[in-house]
Design goal:
Elements (H helix, E strand, L loop, with lengths): L1 H13 L10 E2 L5 E5 L7 E4 L2 E2 L7 E5 L6 E3 L5 E4 L10 E9 L6 E10 L7 E2 L3 E7 L7 E4 L2 E2 L9 E9 L9 E3 L4 E4 L11 E10 L2 E3 L2 E3 L6 E8 L7 E2 L4 E6 L7 E4 L2 E2 L9 E8 L5 E3 L4 E4 L14 E10 L10 E11 L7 E3 L16 E7 L13 E4 L8 E7 L6 E4 L2 E3 L1 E8 L12 E10 L5 E11 L12 E7 L7 E3 L16 E5 L7 E3 L6 E3 L12 E9 L5 E11 L7 E3 L2 E6 L6 E3 L1 E3 L11 E5 L8 E3 L5 E4 L15 E10 L6 E11 L6 E3 L3 E7 L6 E9 L4 H4 L2 E6 L6 E8 L2 E7 L13 E9 L7 E11 L7 E2 L7 E4 L6 E5 L2 E2 L7 E12 L2 E2 L9 E3 L4 E4 L12 E10 L13 E8 L7 E2 L6 E3 L9 E8 L9 E12 L4 E4 L3 E2 ...
Parallel strand pairs: 2-9, 11-20, 22-29, 31-38, 39-45, 47-54, 56-62, 64-72, 74-82
Antiparallel strand pairs: 1-4, 3-7, 5-8, 6-7, 8-9, 10-13, 12-16, 14-17, 15-16, 17-20, 18-19, 21-24, 23-27, 25-28, 26-27, 28-29, 30-32, 32-36, 33-35, 33-37, 34-36, 37-38, 40-43, 41-44, 42-43, 44-45, 46-49, 48-52, 50-53, 51-52, 53-54, 55-57, 57-60, 58-61, 59-60, 61-62, 63-66, 65-70, 67-68, 67-71, ...
Helix pairs in contact: 1-7, 1-10, 4-6, 7-9
């Protein structure tokens, strides 16, 4: 029987079985990759990773319009950057990655490359040439200029911070002259001056971002510096200035009128205006000598004379004033003055002249010019003795050589004298000297005459002066008085210098000094009381205080007269003193009187006397009352001195400090000429009675007291009583009025008749401004006495508001506001207001915290420092508008607090915290982007219907609201055939849009029936565009490849059940087919076969087997892959699969099956014959070997026991000793079926010696047979 099934077992083993090779596939994460834009070229970008179940070598590749960015190692999948990335140019793009195992079509997938922004861009100023002009009077704090720099980076890396790096000119003042705000506004920070500081400034500006990652480190990028040129516009605010600080020139004194002397020049200090100036002479030391023209030229206007300026250093001082033509900014004429010094130079226009004076006291005035002089000299004086009393000065006002002159003598007596000096310049004292003393003789000539000649050394002009010289005689006479005794009189106590006599004279016939008499008093009684003039002889009183007639009535003196030669004579003087009123009346006793006010009377006589002679006017007395504060109430008798009062006296009319005392002064005078008097005080004490009521110093009082301050002094009232004694002027106070129990009034004595009441708050009592701001009280002052009356005054207590209440935030100012993101708004956006019930408050708003949230979730401190700021006045400003990002934070809450800077210590100064919500409004600043999944779209034209979805795209927009709504549209459709031909198409697809959450989906649907014969790819360019309510829309595009599968890939599968059963098992069939092929199964239809064609199959199913990359399986590929998956094949057989084939080959399936069976049987028969022949040959060889083994065993038994063969055995070979037997084969004899060939038991034993090497072939053979059978059956199916 074994021969019958052996061919069927061997046939499948010899048939070639081809297993299907599975295409590789990418890992699931190979759909997108994030790369930083600062990734360097040549650096590793990412790896392409794919799996291949067949472990085939893989080849990787990248294609697409953006493939140039990368290079890929085809064998490893390592991808390196080949071209630099730039987020600002292309923040995301798609590439096509592929992998191939060399057996299947390359597997492709779209990969989305998302570029992460890095801080690789420095801010860039929008313009690089900035210039502006501002007035030099621009107020500090004004806007000068505004610059704008933009940074293409995002987030903090795109938030620009401005700075002023340098100011030219670089001075201490200019470095802080400008400041720049966060918004780029440049503010004037100090005062300008076109002339005193600079007319031009150049500001070096720099813009830096707020920092971000770049090359794996936090980097701050700064722009290239730009320069702002600021031109200062000059304003007319300065006075003109002369270009020189000092002007001087010289002019000859004979210069003609109109001669130009000097040009002055003044310019407008406002250099940028340069207003014309006019000139004038506002002051001159020599008016009329000079004038000035409009051109600033000073000219000679009158005649000049240098000699008039000798006391002025030959200079004329002019004050020249320059006045601007136009008024300055104050509406005034700007002017400046300077002094000009003009030196008048000399010309030889004067002749030397003689003056009667002595240097240096000479003024050389015309009045001093003299031609006649007088001098004196003793007769026979020695040679070179000058003539005295001669004051002669020669003077030539010219200068230098022009003022040099020669002096000579001429005349009748010129031989007796000489002149000195003989040569002089300018001026010189001229002396006439005795030259020949024998010629000077008084007895010959008493007067001599000479002429002094002064000759100009240049012009030879000369002047002559006549000198008369008187010759003095010697002393040869004594003085004499006309009489020897003179009787004189003088009033006593005459004033010092009083002339007693001026008529006594002595005479001396000598002339000159010898005839000059000098008078003197010789020592004696009274010589110290009188004096005499030595020249005139006038006798005067030396000390009048000592001349007292009552002490000595007559004085005797001797008067002496002496001449120049000490010759003298004397005369007696008898001087009588005349009486004068020189004694003052004297008062005896003291006067103190006590009298009661109102009814008391005064009567007292003043006692006095005078020591002058009785009966004369010098001793007669007169009484009078001197004026005083109370003298009008009294009178005194002028002759008797009786003092009386004129009416009732009032104690209160007297100063309290006087304690009722009135001091009167009575004057007692004589009738002498001049009259002499003395004074005496009369003290009258007026006793007090209680006749006055107390009086407040104010009719009403207003006091101020701080609230919440217990136990403090509210105020002080004061009253006084005019009575001047303590018993009559004591004062007590009392208080009345509403709320009087909240106050304490304490009285105290200030002094006599004066008291004060201190109004206090009790220690446990304080006032509250908010409860009762005013109190009205009445204070009474009483004076115990018979009248029992009192005085009252009103007290108004005003409660002063203490800053004790904290401020409160105005709720209306904390209403939410909305601010658009990304630079849409700038400046102030809100104002937080606060109020305080206190009357004095200085409120300040503080920003305590900034809370950032996105969709109700806190996002940290992203917006703490840079988005918003709150000024002390409550103004809320945007700091960095460009940094505001709705996508990061959609709600910013500013936690603010109001504080009162004037709150008193101990009270809360700040309000409760308030929150100002700022809703960040979305701006359409994000472009939609496609969310590309790992999808491949395949179109099977014969399966898709009009309106059926063939592909989908998804996109998102990071904006919100209307800005995030996306609408899809199809921009272009091209059909690319397999030969590369591109055919543009229109109206083939449409794409309605739907949304789920923030993801928008575009369903690409068919508009027309497709041609199922076309082979290629539909390239559909889809645009995703947002729909902002404001502003322009943003869009993104993507191109989808829709692969077509034509009818050549249609496969038919035949099943034994009817189509109804096949339809019921459709899902299981597709699952098994999908498991085996790893494809998507698209079923075209299921139909029953015609009865004529039926064999084992009763129905068929037409289907396509499509891979994700758009490739499809052919019939052969399908057959291989099904045979390769035994589990799927078993399941398909159980579901009734009987035949695989294409639609075109189904008509000849049965014929092919019969031919295949016949051919198979023929081949099997031939193989069986060959195998049978081979088996016979093998059996024969085996039998011969067994016989040899048996023979070997026999030889072994004949060998003696214990004797070992001489040759070692060779295990595992076919050689054993000489018999060539191999016991290691150990083949079981029963397996060969040749038991009948064995002759005896020894042979059987020998054959069984190889049992240990036996192999169980039965079990393995069964499995092999099963597999061969299944493959053979499958071969029949195909």
């Amino acid at each position: 029987m074994a021969w019958l099934w052996l061919p069927f077992v061997l046939l499948p083993a010899l048939m070639v079985s081809v297993a299907a090779n599975v295409a590789p596939k990418f890992e699931s994460n190979m759909s997108s990759v994030f790369l930083p834009e600062d990734l360097s070229v040549g650096a590793e970008a990412f790896w392409l990773i794919a799996k291949d179940d067949d472990q085939d070598p893989l080849t990787y590749g990248i294609s697409g319009s953006y493939a140039y960015f990368f290079t890929v190692m085809s064998t490893t999948g390592e991808v390196k950057l080949a071209s630099p990335l730039d987020f600002e140019t292309l923040y995301q793009f798609s590439i096509t990655i592929s992998v191939s195992d060399g057996h299947n079509s390359p597997v492709q997938r779209e990969m989305r490359v998302i570029v992460d922004d890095r801080n690789d861009n420095a801010p860039v100023f929008q313009n690089t040439g900035f210039s502006t002009s501002i007035s030099e009077t621009l107020p500090v704090g004004s806007l000068v200029f505004t610059v704008l720099a933009e940074d293409k980076d995002t987030g903090s890396a795109g938030a620009v911070v401005y700075s002023i790096e340098k100011v030219i000119p670089s001075t201490d003042d200019s470095q802080h002259l400008f400041r720049i705000l966060d918004n780029g506004s440049i503010i004037l920070n100090g005062s300008l001056s076109y002339n005193n500081k600079s007319a031009f400034y150049q500001l070096e500006l720099e813009a830096c971002d707020s920092g971000g990652l770049f090359n794996n480190s936090h980097t701050i990028q700064c722009s290239s510096p730009v320069f702002l040129s600021v031109t200062i516009i000059d304003e007319p605010d300065l006075d003109p200035q002369f270009i020189r600080e000092f002007y001087s020139a010289s002019v000859a004194e004979d210069a003609a009128q109109g001669t130009s002397v000097l040009t002055v020049e003044a310019v407008d200090s406002d250099k940028g205006i340069n207003d014309p100036v006019t000139y004038s002479i506002s002051s001159s030391t020599r008016p009329g000598w000079f004038d000035i023209g409009a051109d600033g030229v000073i000219r000679v206007h009158g005649s000049l004379d240098r000699e008039q300026l000798l006391d002025e250093d030959e200079e004329v001082q002019l004050e020249v004033t320059a006045t601007e033509t136009n008024p300055n900014i104050y509406g005034q004429q700007a002017k400046v003055s300077t002094w000009v010094t003009l030196v008048v130079t000399d010309v030889n226009d004067h002749t030397p002249e003689f003056y009667n004076c002595s240097l240096p006291a000479c003024t050389f005035s015309p009045q001093e010019v003299q031609v006649n002089f007088v001098g004196y000299v003793d007769e026979h004086a020695s040679t070179r003795i000058p003539v005295d009393s001669l004051t002669m000065v020669a003077y030539d006002p010219d200068k230098g050589n022009n003022g040099t002159f020669l002096l000579t003598l001429r005349g009748l007596d010129a031989e007796a004298f000489s002149v000195s000096p003989e040569r002089a310049a300018g001026s010189a004292d001229v002396q006439v000297l005795v030259r020949a003393s024998q010629l000077v003789d008084y007895e010959t000539k008493t007067v001599m005459l000479v002429q002094v000649v002064a000759t100009d050394s240049v012009s030879q002009n000369s002047s002559v002066a006549m000198v008369t010289i008187h010759i003095r005689d010697v002393n040869d006479h004594r003085p004499s008085f006309p009489q020897s005794l003179y009787v004189l009189s003088v009033p006593e106590h005459s004033a010092t210098g009083f002339v007693v006599t001026n008529s006594i004279h002595a005479t001396d016939p000598d002339t000159g000094e010898w005839g000059h008499i000098t008078y003197s008093l010789l020592p004696g009684n009274g010589a110290d009381l009188f004096a005499v003039d030595p020249d005139s002889g006038t006798v005067t009183v030396r000390d009048g205080e000592l001349l007292d007639r009552e002490t000595q009535a007559v004085y005797y003196l001797t008067l002496q007269a002496a001449d120049g030669g000490n010759l003298s004579a004397s005369a007696s003087l008898q001087i009588h003193l005349l009486d004068i009123n020189d004694n003052t009346p004297e008062v005896s006793g003291s006067y103190n009187i006590f009298v009661q006010e109102e009814g008391g009377e005064v009567s007292v006589t003043i006692q006095a006397q005078d020591k002058d002679e009785p009966g004369t006017s010098n001793s007669r007395l007169l009484y009078s009352l001197l004026p005083s504060p109370h003298s009008h109430n009294f009178s005194v008798n002028p002759d008797t001195g009786l003092l009386t009062n004129l009416g009732p006296l009032d104690r209160e009319a007297i100063e309290p400090a006087l304690e009722g005392r009135i001091v009167l002064t009575v004057q007692v005078a004589d009738y002498g000429v001049p009259s002499r008097s003395t004074e005496v005080n009369v003290t009258i004490t007026v006793e007090d009675i209680n006749d006055n009521l107390p009086v407040f110093n104010q009719s009403s009082y207003t006091f101020f007291v701080k609230e919440r301050d217990p136990g403090v002094l509210v105020g002080v009232v004061e009253a006084w009583d005019a009575d001047q004694t303590e018993v009559n002027n004591r004062i007590s106070f009392s208080l009345s009025g509403s709320s009087v129990n909240r106050f304490i009034l304490q009285g105290s004595v200030l002094g006599p008749g004066r008291a004060e009441g201190r109004l206090w708050l009790p220690l446990d009592e304080s006032l509250d401004y908010e409860s009762q701001p005013f109190f009205y009280l009445t204070v009474s002052a009483e004076n115990p006495g018979p009248q029992d009356q009192e005085a009252t005054a009103e007290i108004n207590v005003t409660v002063v508001d203490v800053n004790d209440e904290p401020p409160t935030l105005v709720a209306a100012s904390l209403q939410g506001i909305r601010v658009a993101e990304n630079g849409s708004q700038h400046g102030q956006v809100a104002e937080v207001r606060a109020q305080d019930v206190d009357s004095t408050a200085l409120l300040q708003i503080k920003l305590l915290n900034t809370i950032c949230a996105k969709a109700g979730v806190a996002v940290g401190s992203l917006c703490h420092d840079c988005w918003f700021s709150v000024m002390p006045n409550g103004s809320v400003y945007i700091n960095q508008s460009e940094a505001i990002d709705y996508e990061v934070c959609d709600l910013v809450t500013l936690v603010v607090q109001a504080c009162d800077l004037l709150t008193d210590p101990g009270f809360p100064a700040c309000s409760d915290n308030g929150s100002l919500p700022i809703t960040i409004e979305d701006v359409n600043d994000n472009t939609p982007y496609f969310v590309l999944g790992n999808k491949t779209f395949v179109i099977i034209p014969e399966l898709v219907l009009i309106g059926q979805q063939v592909a989908t795209v998804q996109a998102r927009d990071d904006d919100s609201g209307a800005n995030a709504v996306i609408e899809f549209s199809i921009l272009q459709v091209d059909f690319v055939s397999k030969d590369g031909t591109t055919l543009p198409l229109q109206n083939v697809f449409e794409i309605p849009t739907s949304a789920e959450g923030t993801v928008f989906t575009g369903s690409i649907e068919l508009l027309i029936n497709l041609d199922s014969t076309l082979q290629g790819t539909y390239q559909v360019t889809v645009q995703a565009q947002d729909k902002p309510s404001v502003g322009s829309a943003r869009e993104a595009q993507v191109t989808l490849n829709l692969f077509t599968v034509d009818q050549s890939y249609r496969v038919r599968l035949q099943f034994s059940p009817q189509k109804e059963e096949v339809g019921a098992n459709m899902e299981a069939i597709k699952a098994a087919l999908g498991q085996a092929t790893r494809t998507t199964v698209y079923v075209v239809n299921v139909q029953n076969l015609d009865s004529a064609a039926r064999s084992r199959a009763h129905s068929y199913m037409d289907a396509y087997f499509v891979f994700p990359n758009g490739s499809a399986l052919t019939l052969n590929d399908l057959s291989v892959m099904i045979r390769n998956d035994e589990d799927a094949l078993t399941q398909l057989l159980q579901l009734g699969l009987v035949v695989l084939g294409s639609q075109q080959s189904q008509e000849s399936d049965q014929t092919k099956q019969l031919i295949s069976v016949i051919i198979g049987l023929g081949v099997a028969l031939a193989l069986a014959i060959v195998i049978a022949a081979t088996v016979l040959v093998c059996v024969r060889k085996s039998h011969r070997r067994k016989l040899q083994a048996m023979k070997a065993a026999k030889e072994a038994r004949q060998t003696a026991a214990g004797v070992m063969p001489s040759v070692a055995a060779i295990p595992g070979t076919n050689m054993y000793n000489t018999e060539r037997a191999n016991p290691m084969l150990n083949l079981p004899t029963g397996d060969l079926g040749l038991e009948y060939l064995s002759s005896n038991d020894q042979d059987r034993i020998s054959l069984n010696s190889l049992d240990d090497n036996s192999v169980d072939l039965d079990k393995n053979s069964k499995g092999i047979k099963a597999r061969w059978g299944m493959r053979w059956y499958l071969g029949l199916l195909t």
